[in-house]
Every structure is written in structure tokens, then in C-alpha cells.
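Running log. JK asked me to keep both predictions on one page so they can be read side by side. First protein, sequence followed by its C-alpha cells:
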Amino acid sequence: MTISDAFREQARACEKLGSPFMARLMTLLADRLTPGTAVTNVIFNWPGDPLPRADSVPLRLAGALHALRLQKIALVDAYPPNDISDDALWSAVEITLNEQSDHVLGWLKSPPQTNEVRRAAAFLPALALLHARYSVPVALFELGASGGLNLRADRFRLDLPGLTLGPPDAEVTIRPEWSGPLPPSTLPE
């Protein structure tokens, strides 16, 4: 398999898991990434298996870009909630890969930790059910599965058809598919 194949496989996984922006980004990388820079030479000369189920080069690169966006160093005007063309997004990615190559190369050295917060779509309703029954404060403990992000679930907002749980100004909003009865409307402290 080629590097392009690795990015396409990751794009399919992102699409299937409900991450349309990352699917779009992975597709752009599959279509437009070429050797010739410090970052792309490392990617195209990857010594192991670049596939998502192995060394996961696509997620390593995605993590590097996302970290730069979160730190407001790069891609601020290119990533959601901004809606820009593929050409504009690609231009921003290319600039970032060149101007932030040391940062990106550092991220490529380590396997990604996805820090998936979507799993909060399951435990926030469970916490609401427990709160309705016991009405006591809750302390969450986690052993590395999400890098601690899900320990901040009280700062997430869960939007369900007909119900919203969590603070209205939350930086993380989760909108899962939902079937069945709605949970109680209050989360514990």
C-alpha cells in the first residue's frame, strides 16, 4: 500500500465514524500530498507500515495539525467552524506543513492518542440517570483511555433530539444519533 492509500483508508474510517471534516482533510492529503519537504519526505519514506491499523501516519499528521489549530498557531481560519473551499484548506495545510515542520515532525515520531470524547454520548446520559436516582456528586476516574478529556465531561454539551445536557457555552458539543427514551435532564455535580 502507498501513503496515499493510507490516507484514503483513514478518510473512509473518518467518514464512517461521523467525522466529515477529517474525512475531507484525509482525502485532500491522499490526493495532494507530495514528497519534497521536510515533513512530506518523512511521510513518503516511512520506515514501517503507514496504515491506520499499524503506525497510523495519517492520524499522526492529523494530530499535529489539530494541535496547532488548538494552540491557535496555525489553521485557525481553515478549520471548522469555518467553511472554506478545498483549495483554501489545502493551501493552509501546505503553509502549515512548511512553516511548522519542526512541530509536525515531532508529532510524527509518536503514535496518536485519539482522545475520543464522543464516548461521552453514552456516559453523560448514564450519569443523568444515576443523578435522578441518587442525587449525589460524582467523581470520574479514567486510566488513560481518552487522555483525561472525558474527566471533564461536566464541561461537555450533549444535544439530543428534544433534550440538551450540559452547559450552553460548552466548547465540546456532541450530537449523536439517538433512539429510545431520553435520559433525565440534569447531570450531577
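And the second, directly underneath as requested:
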Amino acid sequence: MTTSQKILHWTPRILCILSILFVSMFALDSFSPDLTIVQQLAAFGMHLLPSFVLIILLIIAWKWENIGGGIFTLIGLGLSPFIFMKNYEMNHSIGTSLLIVLTITFPFIVVGILFLWSYRNKKRLRNKEETPDSAQ
């Protein structure tokens, strides 16, 4: 495997882990001094559910790049309008809402595209290796 192939293999995985960690940071707002420790831990667990789903999808994508790439791309594209509308209702700013959408969903779109690209690159290389050299 060449250096560019290794980079293409590892970039979506690392970017996905970093994006999941970023999304997980939003769960920290579940802690409040008004709640008991049990209530805080329950709220924290509930806020981490999207991160757990994303981890499961990362495991799927790690094993089956084409399926995982498609799922991550669809999740990024599919959630963008909902996140935009929710944020627009809160702040009434198109620019801020677009920035939030780009910050939260765009990395998953990029991850999905990179997984698909990596899959197609590996498939192309396998086909080259399997095809006998017709010049001989």
C-alpha cells in the first residue's frame, strides 16, 4: 500500500472519530447543579445517544466502506435541513444557522465521501491485480 493509499484509508476514520468527539462535547451541557447526580448521569447518557449511534456507524464503515460511506453521506445531507431550521428558529440568522450546519453535518458528509472514495480506489486496485497482463 502506497503512502497516498494509506492516507486515503485512514483520513475518513480519523476525521470521523474527531467529529464524533466534537458532537459528544455537546453532552456536557446536561450537567446542572439543580439535578441530582443520578439525574445528571441519566441526562448525560441520553445526550450521548447520537454519539453511540455514530460509533456503531463508524464500526460498520470500518468494515464495509461502501455501505458506511453511503450512510454517513446520507446522514450529513439528511440532517442538515433539520439542524438549519432548529437553529434558525432559535437565532433568526441565516448565516449563523448555516455555520452551525457546516460545523456539525459537513464533516460527516466529507467522511462519507472519503469512505466511498477509499472503497472505489481499493476496488480499482483489486481489479488491476486480478486482470492478467494482456501484453505478455
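Observation for JK regarding the second prediction: The radius of gyration is 19 Å.
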